[in-house]
Amino acid sequence: MKQHKKGFVLWIAIVLLLLAGSLAAGFQGRTESVQEAMRDAVLHGENQIPFLGGKAVNPGLVSAFSVTAVLLIAAACIRAFAIPRFRHTPGKFQLAIEEVVGLFDRMAKSNSPHRNGFLGAYIFAVGAYIFVGTLFELLGVQAITTHGAPITLPAPLSDVNAAIATGVLSYLVIVSGGIAGNGVKGIGKSLKEFSLPISMSFRLFGALLSGLLVTELVYYFVNLSFVLPVVVGVLFTLLHAIIQTYVLTMLTALYYGEVSEPPHGGKAPKGKP
Amino acid sequence: MSNIPLNIDWQQILLHWMNLAILVGGLYFLLFKPVKQFMEKREAHYKELDRQAAQKLEEAEAVKTQYQQKLDGMEEELHAARAKAQQAVQQSTEEQLKEARKQARQIVAQAQAQAEHSKEKAIKDSHRELRRLAMEAAEMLAFHPEVDPFEQFLDMTEEGAEHEGR
After folding, report:
1. Residues A260 and A181 sit within 8 Å (Cβ to Cβ)
2. CA distance A200 to chain B (A)
3. N or C terminus of chain A: which is more exposed, having fewer CB within 10 Å?
4. Nearest Cα residue in chain A from B36
């Protein structure tokens, strides 16, 4: 009991010491107002980052390439070290990997029973991208803008270009499923859902941007930066990472299945999915 | 470019597409495909085990049916063998009984023959004794006339009877 009390006192002391230190260090003057910060979070007119030392791009693009690099490195490590050691009776890690792959594979198969090979791979990659990309903002990776000011890299999909790219690409995948499954009829079926690329893009953009704006707002004011970020920053981000991943992958799989479904009474076109 | 609202930049969209293409391809070859292949291989392995187990079960059922049929046949055979054995035992008993009766008859016949023979011998012996006595009586009559022949005969008879009794 005494040891527990000592530990508790030590923990409180460390917290108070760090608080005092942070208050004593003082705050740097704001370079922009909250209105400017939030407007820039949406439009990225000011805070841009030179991409590979060349053209200035939105921070979201740098985040997107960073997320891709992280995912591919992790996948390469798993491929090199974990997959060769997979056993028929899986351990915890193997079970987790199999569950993630199986989740998207099952989603593709259940929503598009006729044609799902490429769909499974696509929604797996996009799902991982949205989920990890959304959580990426929690890391607070810093970058230097073209003006020389530091900036925290946001979630890639809070950039409208990334959201449009993901939404439109998902729509193009759906169209390709329609063509592969039903030929010219499939194009017609897919074009009927012409609002899909806009709705998917702006759903992603809106969801991720709202998260970013709330976070920006909370972190802008020092007084709100102590306990609130635990809820706003971590729990909300985690929650909408899961929700957005589920929504986009599910919608893509659902529409893909719908447009690639062979007409009733007709024969399904031959060929691999 | 800059006239598009929300600062939409086609070049950046294309870069995002390139990024997504790299990601989709990379994750497919590095993770999705190998894990799925492993899972399919394992599924096939367990399906094969299941199939083998079902086949073995079927074989076992067939063997069981075969043995059941054999067992049923064995029971019938057992009944037949038991009946045959009982019949054989009964036959053997009857034969033995018959043999025993035959032997008994032989023994009785032999005993009767022996008794007959003993009787004949006894009669012969008696006749011989009577003849001897008659001879002796005749001798006594002839060679000793002073003795009453009837009394002498009775004495000799008594002697003869004592002699036989001993």
Report:
1. yes
2. 15
3. N
4. A101
